[in-house]
Each structure stands twice: as C-alpha cells, then as structure tokens.
Amino acid sequence: CYGRERPNPRHLDMLVAPPVWTARGLAALSSPRLAQSAAVLHLCGNRLLVNGAVALLRAASSRPAAGLPLLWAMKQTAFRHFTAGESLADVRAAAATLAPAGVRMIVDHSTEESEAADARQANLRAKVALLGKLRAELAGECVFVPIKLTALASPTLLERLTVGAGRLGGGGGGGGGGCPE
C-alpha cells in the first residue's frame, strides 16, 4: 500500500519473511556471494554513500562514454546483488541456483519505458510478450511480475480511481493516502 499515510501494521506483517525462509534462501548462495551481499547491504545503509553513488550514476548515464567504468563497476557489485541479470537466460540461471532452496523469483523487467499515451499499446504488447515467455520458460520459478499501470492507462484516470477507492475504503480519499483494508 503506497501513500502518504503510515502503513497499517497488519500490512507490515506480510512483508517480513519467517527466519526459516531466509535461512533456506541464503543456504543456496556460496560463501563469497554471501560476503558480497553482506558488504553491499552494509554499504547501502550509509545514506551519504548511497546519495553519492546516485549522483555519480546520474552523471555517468548523462555521459555514457565517460561513465562506462562506473557503470561496469555497478554491474559487478550492487546490480548483481539486487537483480538476477539482464536477460532471461540470466534469470533462468539464477532460478536454477535458488530453486533447490525453495526460492522463487519476482521478475521485474521494465517493459514500460514510456508513460506517453502513444506508447501504451506497445507497452502492453511488450508486457504480454514477457508474461508469455515467463510462462513458457519459468512457470514454476516466477511467482510475481509487477506491472506499471501508469504505462498502460492514463495516469489521470488512475489517480481518479485511487481517490475514489480511498473514499470508498474510508482512507480519506485525499489523493494518494487511503488503503482499503
């Protein structure tokens, strides 16, 4: 549930995995991979470092040739920690490694690059194609695929629906707040 209001504690219970799930997932990783993950997570806890890295990445993406070394370094460290890879083959390999420990995947492949009205049909076709590939190649391992609704429908319409749902659910309906329980 997203919005300006504080989350309902009942919703937070769903976000915390039981320790046994975490232990099973971590058991699938090698010791060097665990050490790398611990280091990346520790570094991500430093707000100054994270803000600096974000600024560097923005600068690198605005000057691709000059930023290649930084982008390469990010791919070798943080990117590998937070993603399964850049291709479906990479995702399949990660799934094969993690599946024996009972870990399944959330595939978040951004097929919705543009929110412009003229891009919505192409975004929808790309997302449907992705879902078809995942069904064919990762049906047992992929449990969730997020969809960016603002790339498939008018953001204005979605905002109106959110306000209306908030009013119906008693969440205040002030535009971005209420989550019906």
Automatic annotation (TrEMBL):
<dbReference type="GO" id="GO:0010133">
    <property type="term" value="P:L-proline catabolic process to L-glutamate"/>
</dbReference>
<keyword id="KW-0560">Oxidoreductase</keyword>
<keyword id="KW-0642">Proline metabolism</keyword>
<dbReference type="GO" id="GO:0071949">
    <property type="term" value="F:FAD binding"/>
</dbReference>
<dbReference type="InterPro" id="IPR015659">
    <property type="entry name" value="Proline_oxidase"/>
</dbReference>
<comment type="similarity">
    <text>Belongs to the proline oxidase family.</text>
</comment>
<dbReference type="GO" id="GO:0004657">
    <property type="term" value="F:proline dehydrogenase activity"/>
</dbReference>
<protein>
    <recommendedName>
        <fullName>Proline dehydrogenase</fullName>
        <ecNumber>1.5.5.2</ecNumber>
    </recommendedName>
</protein>
<dbReference type="GO" id="GO:0005739">
    <property type="term" value="C:mitochondrion"/>
</dbReference>
<comment type="function">
    <text>Converts proline to delta-1-pyrroline-5-carboxylate.</text>
</comment>
<keyword id="KW-0285">Flavoprotein</keyword>
<keyword id="KW-0274">FAD</keyword>
